[in-house]
Design a protein that fits this description.
By secondary structure, the chain is mainly alpha-helical. It has helices at residues 2-28, 35-47, 51-70, 76-84, 86-95, 102-125, 132-144, 148-165, 172-196. The protein is globular.
Length: 199
């Protein structure tokens, strides 16, 4: 049991780092952030706070909401994500180069989304708690009885709408995120569940 527990914590932390790094990469390519960070980049531009700091504030507020709505979702991974996620986001944005053209940008966006989605799936399947945003998605999935993919599309669509209102960084990467994030997380969850052996 101890080994499984330690393995879960390790996988959860790796998942957090991948989510943050993927989100930072996607934003830095210059062709649009993921749907949630599209809204956050708008807030960041108006407040001069870093994207990582905006994520930390959002996560700190909504983890409290999740705790009162469905506290079993608040695992070590989700708590750690509140404090850790800022660093891989800001680190990726400091070292990853902007894409020189749309073709390279497309490839970079797909790679970034894959890293992001794999990290999110790893956190969920580690059973140590998803990211706060995925926690919200899981709560709505349970309450509505809709599929994870459908609820994620709705959440991403709402975030995208807010991004437009806030004049965030919206572009090809945002559209790809809206179209691919839910199915990618779904696919990676199945692969991880099978490979790692969680049931």
């Amino acid at each position: 049991m101890k080994n499984i527990h330690l393995k879960s914590i390790l996988l959860g932390i790796i998942g957090i780092l991948l989510v943050g790094f993927g989100a930072g990469m996607l934003t830095k390519t210059g062709y649009g952030a993921d749907t949630l960070n599209a809204a956050f980049t708008g807030i960041s531009a108006k407040t001069n706070l870093s994207l990582g700091t905006i994520n930390t504030i959002f996560n700190a507020v909504f983890i409290i909401v999740i705790f009162f709505v469905d506290r079993k979702l608040v695992g070590i991974g989700m708590i750690l994500s509140v404090f850790i996620l800022k660093f891989p986001i800001d680190f990726a944005m400091s070292i990853y180069p902007a894409s020189p053209n749309i073709f390279v940008g497309f490839l970079s966006d797909v790679l970034s989304l894959s890293i992001f989605a794999f990290g999110a799936a790893l956190m969920i399947e580690s059973k140590m708690g998803a990211t706060v945003y995925d926690g919200i998605t899981l709560i709505l999935t349970d309450r509505t009885k809709l599929s994870f993919r459908t609820v994620r599309f709705i959440c991403d669509g709402t975030a995208l709408f807010l991004g437009v209102l806030l004049h965030g960084q919206i572009g090809m990467g945002t559209v790809l995120s809206f179209a691919l994030m839910a199915p990618l997380i779904d696919m990676f969850r199945k692969m991880i569940n099978k490979g790692v052996g969680y049931n």
